[in-house]
Amino acid sequence: MGTLMRCRDVSGRPVVTLDEADDIAEVKDVVFDGVEGVVVGLTLNGRGLLSGPLHEVLPWSRIRALGPDAVMIDGKGALGEPDEVMEGAGADPNADVIGARVITENGTALGEVVDMVIEVSGSRAAVVGFAMVRLDAGRDAPTTLIPAEDVISVSGDAMIVPPSVERLVREGRGVAS
Amino acid sequence: MRRLSDASGEPVLSRETAERVGKVRNLVLDVPGRRIAAIHVDGRKARARLVDWDAIVGFGPDGVIIDSERSLRGPGEGEELEVASGHRGLDGRMVLSDDGFELGRITDVVFDEESGALITIVIDEAEHPAARLRALGPYCMILAAGDLPALEAPAAAQGAAHEAPY
Asked: What is the residue-wise DSSP string for A96-125?
């Protein structure tokens, strides 16, 4: 088993080049392929208070190490254009699953996705689950974890789950802090 | 064997004139060669003066003797200028392992005063062999993780597994 991480914890980590020991960016979001359930790359922000999002993205295959204190890459050349690396994999870096509505296939809305859990093993990172909060709860409320295998489909708009997940949410099972 | 903390401030003298031309302020490292490339001896920023290791005749306990004042030169770009500007000396710079763990901050550097070869990098209290030096840049120094003691790895992995609710 690999290392489990919450995407929210990965955001903000500096991206550091191994050749020049420079922090050229920091992680904005984790981009995944909703069909395959694998992480395809990271979107980036510039470093410093005044910098905004970077156009370039970091494909997962070019990450040398995802450590707790930094994401290590060989050099600036590891960054790439979003369309060449992300869309080819069926992922749209502009479609943010965070904030997507969780809805059963019966059409009952259960809550909102607030975070994603990935499992990093070797050179692969799989999406293993999504953290959601109930619609009536605040953003800081306890989250319910929906295992990725229970998810029927997911996009930036919504995550469709089987009705059984409604019971899981109501009973408060899979609740984590 | 000398430590930067101990050599720092030592007078630098010209062999030709016996005049004092400066003092040991900081070191510029040759990262691939894992040795000292130059010493910053005087001035700041663009006016800084450095001396290449090859121009050093003797690195003794009481002074560094260089061949002549003519060996002093201005700083190059990048790392050299940073060191000469004083705000990116080796001391206090953050160190990351190449697998993304923060190891601490540089507190000292141990080198061989005959050859200029780096022996160990002292990070907080721990000494790490200079052979692991991989890069030095504006953000940090990077050491190869190799069989470095995994200071945080098990704890971090456990923490992550613990946070995840199954």
From this structure: --TTPEEEETTS-EEEEEEEEEEEEETTEE
Q: How far B85 CA sits from the closest chain A CA (Å)?
A: 18
- Check CB contact of A43 with chain B, cutoff 8 Å: no
Find, in chain B, the residue whose alpha carbon is nearest to that of A116.
Answer: B164
Tokens encoding A59: 């494909």
Helix (H, G, I), strand (E, B) or coil at B150: coil
CB-based contact, A174 to chain B, within 8 Å: yes
Contacts of B24 (CB under 8 A, 6+ apart): B7, B8, B9, B10, B12, B39, B41, B64
Phi, psi of B98 (to 5 degrees): -75, 0
Mean pLDDT by 10 residues, chain A (177 residues): 88 95 94 86 89 91 93 95 67 74 92 92 88 79 88 89 87 59
Answer whether B98 touches A (CB < 8 Å). Answer: yes
B154 shares contact with chain A (CB less than 8 Å): no
Predicted ipTM > 0.90: no
Supply A151's token pair.
């998810």
- Residues B65 and B58: beta-carbon distance below 8 Å: yes
Q: What is the distance between the alpha carbons of residues B31 and B140, in angstroms, rounded to a whole number?
A: 13
Closest CA–CA distance from residue B71 to any residue of chain A (Å):
28
- pTM summary value: 0.81
